[in-house]
Amino acid sequence: MLTEAQIEEVVDRALVEDLAWGDTTTESLIPGDQKGLASIAAKEEGILAGSDIAKKVFQRVDPTLRVVISIADGAQISPGSIIARVEGNVASILKAERVALNFLQRLSGIASETDRYVKAVEGLPVRIMDTRKTTPGLRSLEKYAVQVGGGQNHRMNLADGILIKDNHLAALRSGGLTLPDIVARARQASKRLKIEVEAKTPQEADEGAEAGADIVMLDNMSLEDMRQAVKSIHGRALVEASGGITLATVRAVAETGVDFISVGALTHSVKALDISLELTSSSQQ
């Protein structure tokens, strides 16, 4: 899960992006001594993620702000659900508002979409996983949101596993190496990591398992080809389906017998969940 250092690093970068030159509107119009109370509320159904990150935003802007989270990450929220309340200096609340909501909305959108995929394959022995198709600089947060939604993380970075894809194969085969040679070289280089090989046809999938790969990735295969590949591999390796999988097709993919389904759309094109902040009371000192 996320560390305090990871949260602070991302939050500070986001605040610099929004507040490096101040908040002209707030500083011009809002009295510096005005106090108030604001509520953060959901405007649509989904799974909440990012509440602690939003809280950190307010505290980094103004440590005197009091932030009370009323709903924990992973909970189902619906229109009108009060996620948190923020009390203190109104100018500080307004300065932090957009950055806090950006994190809440995006991460809750990812968690909600992941939850939909997980529920779509309920009852089947398959795991929904993310990819490295994440927003630059936000990978740790976005992969956290996938976990909150019930999914699992694929590689966090390029050091997390050996995934031999088509371009790796093309480069190595041009030097005369066969697939068994390539897998053996990978095994020799790192004995502790799982080795995964990409396959575009059932024949390539069988060759990957025969070469000793721990996982074979079925890349953009038809359902019939996936079924054939799973049958051919017959437990010699774990099998991952990837490429173009949607909510409409994910259950059919799961029914082919694959062990994992990786879905880039969980992070690369997800819709943010609608969440807002409203100032509910304020007074000048």
- In total, how many beta strands? 12
Ends distance: 41 Å
Q: Find the CATH topology of the largest domain.
A: TIM Barrel
CATH architecture of the largest domain: Alpha-Beta Barrel
Order of H and E elements: HHEEHEEEHEHEHHEHEHEHEHE
Q: Write out the strand line-up for the largest beta sheet, numbering strands in chain order.
A: 6-11-10-9-8-7
Number of domains: 2
Helix fraction bin: 40-55%
| Approximate strand percentage | 15-25%
Mean pLDDT: 96
Summing up helix and strand content along with how strands pair, one would put the structural category as alpha/beta
Largest sheet, in brief, is: 6 strands, parallel
From the spread of the alpha carbons, the general shape counts as elongated
Which descriptors would you attach to this protein?
four-stranded antiparallel β-sheet, elongated, TIM Barrel, single chain, alpha/beta
How would you characterize this protein structure?
The structure is a single chain. The chain folds into two domains: 4-116 and 271-284, Quinolinate phosphoribosyl transferase, N-terminal domain (Aldehyde Oxidoreductase, domain 3); 118-268, Aldolase class I (TIM Barrel). It has helices at residues 4-19, 24-29, 51-61, 90-120, 139-148, 166-173, 179-189, 202-210, 223-233, 250-254, 265-268, and strands at 34-42, 46-47, 66-69, 76-77, 82-89, 127-129, 162-164, 195-199, 215-219, 238-242, 260-262, 275-284. With 285 residues, the protein is an alpha/beta fold. Helix content is 43%, strand content 21%. The strands form three sheets. A six-stranded parallel beta sheet has the order 6-11-10-9-8-7. The chain has a four-stranded antiparallel beta sheet with strand order 3-5-1-12, with helices on one face.
